[in-house]
Predict the structure.
Amino acid sequence: MNALAQSGVGRAFTTPLGLFSGGYILILLVVALTAPWITPFDVTIQDLANSNAAPGWPHLMGTDEFGRDVLSRVMYGARTSLSVSATAIGFSMIVGMALGAAAGYFGGLFERAVMTVVDLTWSFPDILIALMLVAIIGPGLSSTMFAIAVAYLAQFTRLTRAQIVQLKRETFIEATINLGATPAHILSRHLLPNAVAPVIVVGMLAIGDGIILEATLGFFGLGAQPPTPSWGAMMSSGTAQLFLAPWVIIFPGLVVAVTVIAINLFGDALIRALDIRERLRGT
Amino acid sequence: QEATFALPAGELGATSYNPVTSSNLNSATSLIYDRLIEQDADQSFHPHLATSWQESPDGMTWEFKLHPGVKFHDGEPFNAETIAAWIPTFAGTENAFMVEAIDKVVVVDPLTIKFVMKRPEPNMLYNLASSFMGVPSPKSYKALGKDYGVTTAVGTGPFKLESFSIGLETVLVRNDDYAWDSDLSVNQGAAKIAKITFREIPDQSTAFLELKTGGVDVLLGVPTDFLSIIKSEKAATIITMPGTGINYMPINTSVAPFTDIKVRQATALAINQKAILDSVYAGVGQEAHNFLISSLPESQVKPGLDVSFDLAKANALLDEAGWKRADDGVRAKDGQPLKVKLFTQNDTEFKRLTQVVQAQLKDIGMDAEITVLDSSTIRDEYKKNNHQLAVRGYDWNNADILDWFFSGARLGYPNISMWKDAKSDELNKTAMTNSKTSAERIANFRTYHEYLLSQFLFVPIYQPATNIAFNPKTVSVPEKVRGPRFRSQTIMDMQVLQ
Amino acid sequence: MSTILKVEALRVAIGALTPLSSVSFSLEKGETLGLVGESGSGKSLTAMAIMGLLPLIGGRITGGSVVFDGSDLTALPEPAYRKLRGGRIGLITQNPMTSLDPLKKVGSQIDVVARLHLGLDKSAARNRTVELLGELRIPEPASIYHLYPHQLSGGMKQRIVIAMALAADPDLLIADEPTTALDVTVQAQIIRLLSDLIRDRGLSMVLITHDMSVVAQACDKVVVMYAGTAVEYGTVAAIFDDPRHPYTKALIGCIPRGLAGAQRLKGIEGTVPSVAHYPQGCRFHPRCPRAEAICAAVSPPFIASRDGAAACHFAGAVG
Amino acid sequence: MIIKYTLQRLLMLIPVSLSISVVIFLVVHLLPGDPIDNLMRVGSSPEDRLAMTVKYGLDRTLVEQYLLWIRSILSGDFGEAIVLRRPVSALIWQNLPYSLTLGALAFAFSSIVGMIAGTVSAVAKNPVVEQVVKAFILLGSTVPSFWLALLMILLFSVTLGWFPVSGAKTWTALVLPVLTIGFGGIALVARVTRVALVEIARQDFVTLLHAKGLSRSTILFRHLLPHAFLPVVTILALRIGWILGGAVTVEFVFGRPGLGSLLIRALGQRDYPVVQGCLLMLALAVMLGTLIGDVAQAALDPRVREATT
Amino acid sequence: MSEFLEVSRLSKRYTSKRGLFGAARSMYAVNDVSFRMTKGRVVGVVGESGCGKSTLARLILRLIEPSSGAVRFDGLDLLKQRPREMRRLRARMQMVFQDPYSAIDPRYTVADAVMEPFQIQGVRLSSAARSDMISGLLTMVGLNPQTASSYPHQLSGGQKQRIGIARALALKPALLVLDEPTASLDVSIQAQIVGLLERLQEEMGLTYLFISHDLALVKYFCDEVLVMYLGRVVEALPNTDAPARHPYTRTLLDSTFQPDPKLRRRIQPLAGEVPSPFDLGPGCAFAARCPRASERCRVETPLLAASGGGHAVACHHPD
Ligand SMILES: Nc1ncnc2c1ncn2[C@@H]1O[C@H](COP(=O)(O)OP(=O)(O)OP(=O)(O)O)[C@@H](O)[C@H]1O
Ligand SMILES: Nc1ncnc2c1ncn2[C@@H]1O[C@H](COP(=O)(O)OP(=O)(O)OP(=O)(O)O)[C@@H](O)[C@H]1O
Ligand SMILES: [Mg+2]
Ligand SMILES: [Mg+2]
Ligand code: NI
């Protein structure tokens, strides 16, 4: 990343909303990274005598059906949910950029084929794609990641392609060709670096959606394998407890909501700071 | 005089009320159709459309006397011809196996029918009592063809099918002419409820909320997680009746470390049935100590063969088998940690149960890693022999379930234990095909069961109860639930309160 | 002759910026006033201020007055202003390509003005539109009426925009660079058309342009703007014969005329400052060949000359 | 012109659908497990199992199975469900109305509210209003729909008693599902509307509309909103797949039948013909959606339509 | 002086669909254009928007492939060059683009942009040579070497255009194609850039192909002039003093205003519009607007025919 983009991220923190949401995300990241060491209670050890305890001391968010501390599991869940979503989206972003850049640069039949497939998957409900994929690969975090990655691949491919097509028309590309540049030089030095910022911002926003998709897969019982906590898995096992121990589902749900909102707000701040609203248009 | 029932999770998604071809029937079927024979909660058989029956000593013929004056909803009479027309319709369907032993059906007189058998079938009465053996009107059945069971379903039962919206609800109205109740219900005339709606609500929380807000009057089948909530709810009463299944943990005997019977036994002894009953199931239901439900006579095995929790012995056995505890508490042998795969089904209850099992296995130094799989995938994994332990359950009130899960001819699935053993197959054959009468069959199955128990092929865990919740302000339910499940016999005695 | 528009010491703010200050000029009935200056000099803002459209871009008038036909528009409430706009003052914008709603037929876009301001009904408005199109020398006006903007050439679209401005018989036309986006041949035709309209209808017009040649061709009076201020105004003859402000003089010198080598084009050193960085004193002083210390310190007052005035400390001395 | 074009595009659907059908078939048959196990009950023998496998042609090679399937599709028959024991077309036909009503209403709800929200946030000069609208927009798209659904049931059905908890027989039962799904779509529509409005408001012709003396509301309703319609329609047309199949979670919670639920149930049971039929249907709907989007765009925009003169 | 660029019968045809539903139609953006350039001369190309000037420039530099025709540069047939050779050859023929605002990658600093030609052509420079080169190039185009670390968005249009010129000249090309290099700049800046170009040409003996829509500018700047109309060259003036003979060239001249109110023109009405370039029928493309058009003009396409002194006209009835 060049100085321009770096300063953009910095600038995103300068608005109150950007600071607030960015700060929240940073804290969440720290919690996720250090979760194994900082959670007040062990997240897997069962304490059946203490099950479904209401929020209070020492269990600030109460305990679940196995007497496990909800707060600790929410903290640890950040690790699972964020890493699943971020890894998936990251992977999706890389593949999507490669596909989109190739489609946009080479055009022709290749582009048509890629875009037809991509549009079809884009128009298909995420949850169906994810459920099919999880059924094919089998459950577990890796297949959840794969499913999220595939579900969002279309978005990145479309965005990158749109960018490349738009950039290709810019005079500076023609000027560079006219200097005798090879396609490799043009792609790697001009097209991709210019296309990357919007893709990263959209990717960041997609992490929020990825968290929701992970949660929904969790609701259908897929995703993280017990006893590993993830927000989705917690909510899904919590639906049964909705009336007995509502905190088991409410807290992870709230954290998901707040996190996704924070990601959205920070994404907006970033878009404004990087001044790429124009380039996100139509995608 | 109307009542709304919510179908239990296991009965959702029926696409037809055609008992002959269907593979999925729900409780409403038992109200539309009558069966020749009914089974009670104690697994005893009672007359219904067949008033009496006689099995020849060699088991090669069965004779049934039929109830006189029975009429189908379409006005057709029910008689021996009905049966003669009905049995052959099973040919070529997925349900054909139920009547497969019948060679031919002979009409003796209008109210007497005789089955001539290909081979003895000690399970005949059990099969005839199943919901797939509800008798449809031969005339309508023939006339409607593929649509039978979807637009119309015609039986002799206490209720007529009024409308069926697939996946949503089934509306039944009372058959006012009904006068041929079985002796399992007190009521011997038409039903007391005029109209019943069976609703399909996939999400259990939603179903519970429907009961709470009056959207449904009866929940057939309440998951155990909801018991405590419903108990605290004024608007609901719970009836608990013995279930018809067992939750257990099959052990794959074909892969290490479970090729060693000592490890299998240790694993079996590690599971604390009592603790599970109390923590996971809030004390509702029963502990399971062998493979069959306790109402079956075959479950009464020799003392000492039942599997019960014994942590000390389990640990001793593992020590003996060479698995030594390491610092982290996990045992190891030859540098190989005692780490096993524990499969479970994608279902909240099983996931809960499995997490407790996982914790208990940890106490004997076994590190079990849970994998949650959907029901089709899990079968595929079993077939590929990718499993070691699994937590699962079955629902079947007949001892032939032993054949299903342990027959050497069904390795992989359903024989998840991958159990193939000459002696076992010999005992299986005796029980399945060489028993001529019911009594003989019971004895043979008990022997088979005892042998299987001695080999530690599985760990019995829990016998679920069936829980029915209802709104005591809107409906009344008889004290005692008759029949193996909460079905027509009990519903006949229900009343709507105003 | 009576004054139809008089702008005095106009000052416009957008947010914390003041992109326009001390703009003054007056326009007599039947006259054409040229507002000339380089990009960003505030020409369009002046037009927007006269039309009362500054709120659209988040701006407001913070000083001075705009007197139209005797009444001060700066205090005019919005509903009354709406009557004026399109009714008595017509606006023609720079880019005909984007000046028409692409989803509506061009005819109806003209009709609406007559219906709104003259209270005509649908068919009367339509007849009037077709008539007007004919007057603007548009061939087959009745069929043009039914076309969509994208089906017309740039010159044709500009005529439609002019028709829109004329539809309610205004007294004043404000033409914001009406020919900049057009080819020279079309530009000539449009300028001719506008000149004929002024003459035939007795209209007055503020013609905004950055092209001194257009001013020379079509205007009676000129206001030269630089960096958000008027620097000189006067009659066309005076401005071209005897420019008093160094900027005016330089601007005229930038136009290639005659043949190569006749006289080297010099241009003006430096660049136009942006709104946020307007220099102190005379805004032109960093680029001015004549600048002295006073220029950087004191904003020059207007110094009147024969037929106009120039805001330069040395305006009197030049010449 | 439009008709000819539409016909051409419809013809193009045939080869595309065929290639999609291959993909769908392969994906479905890649799934571990098979439908026969769902048919077998205790007491049936391994021979019965084999007989069933043969009966449903599952013993044939994949190529043969595919050709058989595609042949029956081409003759207008989606085949017979293996586990669900009904013609696939009948199953789809029974579930489609539920998906369509729910989808169409949710669609209408999110488009209308989304467009209003987007318009308000684009036009509002007041930053507080803008933030409030934005928060509202974010609401639906930041929580999993099952969570929102359960909480809405708790509030509106259990506590307030306004709507039934579940079901699909009465219109009141539609309210909560529509709201749940609709909320998710608002953000998308609002964002698109807002962007379109902000962009269009920058164009010269809007200045000129003001200069003609038109009132703000006339300009907004007669000129700006039609422009905002264009991208909204395109994006919504592309989402037809979501309308038909994407409501699984909501269907599950509210106990409604629908294509999504059918698909998931059939997927769980590996009922190949049903899964294949549903997926093919969805793919077709998606492609039709694209087509509808293009045609709608042409109907709304003369530049796209390019009427002959 | 050697024949150094030879363009023969160059054509570029574009096919496009009319809207979403329409049938395909085609147009010649450049139609049968032939001309030669001598080393060290400045050849101007004028014509209205869309007449194919930029397309011609791109064809000459082989930035797009022609539909037919040939380009010989310094004795080499450009169209026969393989990609690798072509890339090397590009160092000798450079272009300055119409729109300076997007001519530099926004992520590149001025220094990066100016050094990119060396990087692409594989010229390795030590870091000292590099900074010398940067400041040398920037000084050459009249920029302060301190701008080297700026990003494009920190520069004005004129500054960007200077960087465009610096980039183009970095590899010391023999031919420089200037595609309306000042069209989007203010007059004062235009004059600066034109001045710069003149100076550079004199200093370095460059050969320019100078494209513009401004006849006055071309006449001022160029040695020879090609006049284009709808893809064709309609008149080739051997020098700028030569009187125009093609009616279109005369129309262009008549439409150009003088920056002097005393030289106001009587603008002649011009019939018709520029016809759509798509699917042009036979005959002279200007016939519809030409005051002298005869029946012959509508059926027979006039060919560019040279008369004395290298002055060629494509007209059946030239002056
Ligand atoms: N919406 C706005 N917000 C902030 N500044 C603005 C806005 N609109 C115009 N300006 C500034 O006001 C100054 C004058 O702009 P204006 O559009 O009047 O120039 P102009 O003379 O019409 O230029 P052009 O020839 O390019 O049309 C410019 O410096 C511009 O940056
Ligand atoms: N890639 C393309 N595809 C289709 N048509 C094109 C393409 N490039 C140019 N044209 C068309 O070719 C014609 C000539 O374009 P060109 O850009 O060469 O004109 P120009 O003389 O440079 O105009 P301007 O003065 O506006 O720059 C135009 O009508 C244009 O629409
Ligand atoms: Mg302007
Ligand atoms: Mg050009
Ligand atoms: Ni998606």
Q: What stands out?
A: The radius of gyration of chain C is 20 Å. The pocket of magnesium ion (ligand 4) is lined by residues E 53-54, 98, 179-180 (CB under 6 Å).
